Protein 1
Amino acid sequence: MKTLSKSRHRYILKKRTNKEWEKALKAIRSDEIRTMCCLIVWFDFFSECEPRRESPQVIIQAKADWNYWSLVHRQLKTTPKHLENALIRLGYHPDIAHNRSLVLAE
């Protein structure tokens, strides 16, 4: 099976509707991984969108929850590999998912 190019993956993800993002992100069972994926998706597809595009509710909630995960827990249980796999399931190209997951290694 042929792998799609990075640009094709990005094109497909950019065309997703808010309802499609909402469904895909809510399918992630781990609250911690879902929160991190939401923040990455927001940064990649909503933060610099012109004209400004309203984020799906699941992303709005994740942005509010981030302080809880980073300040209260102080230590995330998610590994870069877990985050990478979740991003791939969301439709990210494997190379891009790997690079985006390295945020946890920093």
Protein 2
Amino acid sequence: MPSDEELLDRTLAFSGTYVSDDGNVAIRRAAGAAEYSGDRFVGHCAVCDQALLVPYPGEPLADLAAAIRFLSTHDHGDVD
């Protein structure tokens, strides 16, 4: 059985976007991002966006490890 990291990587490779079960947190592949340079992903949270706690259009994430950290540690700015 693949690990959560492998599943996230496969989902992003296939569709370019991952959305949490509650629909509030999303990771998407950054437009024009190359695997070897720049921020590869963007993390977005609908709750934090409404509270103006994240930059528009989301938090730049350098790699898959940063995307996993964003998903696992995201707390909606302690407002949910």
